[in-house]
């Protein structure tokens, strides 16, 4: 099972999105665990995850987060509209297109 972590400033919006994405992933039969965290807790929990999504409003932290997670685990920034509208299906499709290894 692939573990995906969504990070936003405080974790509230990311948590809501993660719940919606998890439902879509479960319904679609994807072996994916979607979790969320606020920026302050990211460094301590990131070792347990395989891939990462950043909320668009913290994309300025991308280089810092890349340095924390290393080169072997993928990271991407979620587009603004799907994030703001909590469109779990659209963000999951973005993840599957961006990280093709998660589709299996």
Structure, explained:
By secondary structure, this protein is of the alpha/beta class. It has one domain: Rossmann fold. 46% of the residues lie in helices and 20% in strands. It has helices at residues 12-28, 39-45, 62-69, 80-84, 88-98; strands at residues 2-8, 32-38, 51-54, 75-77. The chain has a four-stranded parallel beta sheet with strand order 2-1-3-4. It is globular, with a radius of gyration of 12 Å. Pfam families: PTS_IIB. The modification Phosphocysteine is found at residue 8. GO terms for molecular function: kinase activity; protein-N(PI)-phosphohistidine-sugar phosphotransferase activity. It is an enzyme of class 2 (transferase).
Task: Please provide a brief summary of the model.
The protein has 104 residues and is α/β, with parallel strands linked by helices. Helices cover 46% and strands 20% of the residues.
Unreliable spans are: none
- Report on the biggest sheet: 4 strands, parallel
CA(first)-CA(last) distance: 9 Å
Can you tell me the CATH class? Alpha Beta
CATH architecture: 3-Layer(aba) Sandwich
Please tally the β strands and state the result.
4
Domain module count: 1
CATH topology: Rossmann fold
Strand order within the widest sheet?
2-1-3-4
Helix content: 40-55%
Tell me the fraction of residues in β-strands, as a range: 15-25%
CATH homologous superfamily descriptor = Response regulator
Q: What series of H and E elements makes up the topology?
A: EHEHEHEHH
Describe the global form. globular
So how many helices?
A: 5
Q: Indicate the radius of gyration in whole angstroms.
A: 12 Å
Mean pLDDT figure: 95
């Amino acid at each position: 099972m692939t573990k995906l972590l969504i990070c936003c400033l405080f974790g509230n919006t990311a948590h809501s999105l993660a719940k919606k994405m998890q439902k879509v992933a479960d319904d679609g039969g994807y072996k994916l665990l979607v979790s969320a965290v606020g920026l302050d807790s990211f460094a301590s929990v990131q070792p347990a995850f395989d891939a990462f999504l950043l909320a668009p409003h913290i994309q300025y932290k991308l280089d810092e987060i890349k340095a924390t997670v290393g080169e072997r685990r993928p990271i991407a920034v979620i587009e603004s509209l799907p994030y703001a509208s909590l469109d779990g299906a659209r963000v999951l499709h973005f993840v599957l297109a961006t990280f093709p290894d998660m589709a299996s």
